[in-house]
Each structure stands twice: as C-alpha cells, then as structure tokens.
Amino acid sequence: MTGKAAPRTTGEGNTRTRLDRGRGALGPALELVHTGRAPTRAVLTAELGVTRATAGAVAAELEALGLIRVDAHPGAAAGAQGRPSHRLEVAEGGPVALAAQVHADGFRAALVGLGGRIVATAPGCEAVDADPSKVLRSVVEAGTELLRNTGRRCVGAGLAVPSAVAEPEGLALNPLHLAWPPGAPVREIFAECVRAAGIAGPAFAANDVNLAALAEHRHGAGRGSRDLLCVATGHRGVGGALVLDGRLHTGSSGLALEVGHLTVNPEGRPCHCGSRGCLDVEADPLAFLEEAGRDAGPEVSQLEQANDLIRTRYPDDPAVRSAVEALIDRLGLGLSGLVNILNPDRIILGGLHRTLLDTDPERLRAVVADRSLWGRSGGVPILPCTLDHNSLVGAAELAWQPVLDDPLAALA
C-alpha cells in the first residue's frame, strides 16, 4: 500500500530549516563543547554567532549523533536570576578514539572520548621490540581488546612516537631510543595494523611532544593561550612543540621545533646528532642521574628514578641539589633562546622538566628572565603540564579531528 507522506507541520519545517542553515556550524559547535568553551547553549549561541533557535537545532543534532548531552533542566546557581541555559556536555557513553603511545620504556593503548577523557587503558608493556611492526601490532591488539570489552564505537586511531615524524610520508626519522630503523614508515604500519584488527576510521601518527602540546592546549595547562610553547623530557631525550594562533605548528614537513638540539653546554656530552652539549643529552633523566652521581638501574624507567630522587632527596642531598640546579640552568638557557625567537604567550613543561619547575620555580624563571630580550620575556608564564598521559590524549585528538571538522560525514 502506498500513499503520500504525512505533511510536515510548520514547527517541524522551521526546525529542519534552522538545522539546514546550521549544518556548517556542527563541527565548530562540537569543538567548542569538546574543549569546554561552550558549557551552555547560551555560550554556544554567542560563540557561533547564530540565533538561539539555530544553536538549539545544532545542539540537538549533535545529541542525536551520540556526541553530546543536552541538559534542558539544569539547576540554577545560588543567587542567579532567570531561567538557566541548557547545559552542554560530551556524551559519557559516546564514541571513542583508539590512542597508542610508544616510548623508550614501553608502550600503552587507551580509549579516549570527547573532552580528552580517558575511558579505558590497557596495562603498559615494558618491552619494545626493535621491529616496529611487532610493537604496533601488539599495541593495536591491546586497543582492540579494550574496544571489545567496552563495546564502544571507534572513530579512528592515533599513535604517539618519540621521534620526529616526516610528512606527508609519516616516517619516524630518528627513533633513537627505540632501536627502530631510521625512517620507519610508522603511520603506514600502524594503519595496516588498525585495518587488520577490523577497526573503522582513519589512522594517524605524530611526534609525542607535539601531541602532548595539542592535548594541553585543548584540555590542559595551555587552554586559553594563543601561542603556546611546550618543552618536555619523557623517558629519554628532550622534545618541543609550538601551537601558533591556536594550531599546532609542525613546519613544512612535520619537523619543526626539534628543540632537543639546541646547544646549552658547548663542552658537554656528545649528542646523537653529532654535536655536543645539546639539550637532548644535557637535560633529560639520564643526564640528571649522571649529574647526581647515580647509576641508572634497570628496575624502573629513568624518568621515574629521576623524579623519585628529586622528591625524596632534595634539598637534603647536596649532589641531588646540585644536579637540580645544573639542569634548571641548562633548561632555562634553552627556554630563553626559544622565547627570544618565538615570543610565546605561555610556556608549559612536561616530564622531568615539570618536576624541576615544581622544585625551584623561581630559579628557572630567573634564568629565563635574565637571558631574555630586554627582560620582557621574563613575564611569560611558565606552567607545568596538567594532563596525565597527555601524549595519549593528543594521539586521540588526531583521530577525533575528522569528526570535529565534519561530524555528519565522519560518522555516516
């Protein structure tokens, strides 16, 4: 039996018209909720520059896609007047991205939802094979198990590696602390592992500090900054990243901000790059342990050993105190040079550098101020990174980006 479709009511037609007009706003609206910049529909309306009705239609569509939750009846704050605006939150049971990280002391997989929320993590593995294919297959298998256990829909996968990643090929050019061959095609290998596991969505790979900066800019210590400099030392080496005008700056081929190879001690340790006294070998956990007269044991990672030594022996142990001061001075020298060139509005520090900042913030800020141009750069805020597993969260951001760009197309 056939017949004419029921006529659409005027209200339904107006709602559909508003949504059609607002389809181009779905991505920007989702990013505003994702980054916490639009906690209510009133703020979303103002940020998008649309009518309240259009913002309502956009929010309703994002809710129908399972991406956000709209609370139409929020409680009013004490002393507030008028009806409170609808609250907007990311959907707790919504889709996730598979995030993977490989570093010198192991690898880990996690599921990360919108808002940078880590939904589930697999136990970390402490052995990294010299064959990247074996490692990436194992980390994807761990992520697949998480997806199976949680039953979540996956939008894609992202990988963080401790190496410069050349674009557009996705090659890990210098995985020095992994024993991987230089130029390993990590993105291609990772994508093949993701496809073989039956995981839907695109796969990406990038440098771990770049991804940490991206995550901190959207969800952590970098929120609200325009030009953000991130410097971090993880398990080995030193990395840097820059967010310019709200976007991650990777240069013409993905290799920008190799800050580890700034010379901070001309008579210092030989560096893997062929130079001497680079930040990479003068201000990482191994350099700290050597400066403090400690041997790097195999029981736990060098980052853990260095952090524990500072937290338990500073300032009572003269050797530890001297090592802290030496690394702060070297780090400050490197930061001052970067500040003079880049003029960021905020600096964030991760890994061991965050511990050094927490231990003696005034010394580090003084070194940067003393060596900055005209003393003006001494006023740049230097803050610790705040996100746990920020490189994992950043890896997930890569997978979430197509959804943020066009939710309808990405989830079709």
Automatic annotation (TrEMBL):
Superkingdom per UniProt: Bacteria
Region (Disordered): 1-24
Coiled-coil region(s): none
Organism: Streptomyces chiangmaiensis
One matching Pfam family: ROK
Name of the protein this chain belongs to: ROK family protein
InterPro entries: ATPase_NBD, ROK, WH-like_DNA-bd_sf
Sequence similarity: Belongs to the ROK (NagC/XylR) family.
